[in-house]
Amino acid sequence: MKNFLSHAGVIAALLLALPLVAVGPGIAEAAQATAAKKKAEQPAAASTASSTVNVYEKQPPVTDKELLDFLDLLPQFRSWAKNNNEEAHPILRNGKADFLYSSKAAAWVQEHKWNPVRFFCVMGRMAAALSIVEEGNDMTGARSKDMPAVSEGELALARRHLGTMLKAGGDAPPINK
Questions:
Q1: What is the CA 65 to chain-centroid distance, rounded?
Q2: What pairs with residue 158 in β-bridges?
């Protein structure tokens, strides 16, 4: 399978439309370097909100209601992220798929009645599910290391709500950095 972020570039633009690092080989490493640089430039107290918790660990599968609630909020989050020059995207951290987001993004999500870890878990898993659907539904093929595992149920959700997912993510061009 192609690199998760580069292959899912169209999907990421439609679903996330958030700043992504340059597309190409080594994207996970580039994301890690960018994150490390940003972290080094910030005071210790203002470090990345997701730095201590992997968003995918110990998380139950995404539910139908949860996905619909997420899709209702996604356009607002994307608009806020674009207007505030915020980054939120899958990364490889300590050899595992994870999701990078700032403490500002976490606060915004909390103000909108979501747990940030769960919100970004849903975002990452649904982007991964869309990538799998685009690849022809092959969950057994090679995955990029920054792509989280997706359950059969989450894949079924992505298929069932494909139109809604694309509509929620398709009204703005991607932000390129």
A1: 19
A2: none
Is 132 within 8 Å of 138 (Cβ atoms)? yes
Between CA 31 and CA 92 the distance in angstroms is 8
Which CA distances in Å does 43 have to 3, 39, 47, 94, 138? 32, 8, 7, 21, 43
**pLDDT tier at 169 (50, 70, 90 boundaries)?**
confident
Question: Minimal CA–CA distance to 31: which of 99, 118, 112?
Answer: 99
Rounded to whole angstroms, how far apart are CA atoms 172 and 177?
15
Cα 59 to Cα 53: distance, rounded to the nearest angstrom: 11
Cα separations in angstroms, 166 against 14, 40, 130, 140: 6, 36, 10, 24
pTM: 0.70
CA nearest to 87, candidates 5, 25, 2, 155: 5
Residue 24 is classified by DSSP as S
Tens of pLDDT, residue by residue over 72-129, are: 999 999 999 999 999 999 999 999 999 999 999 999 999 999 999 999 999 999 999 9
> Which residues in the chain belong to E strands, given as ranges?
88-93, 96-101
Q: Determine the Cα–Cα distance for residues 90 and 124; give it in Å rounded to an integer.
A: 6
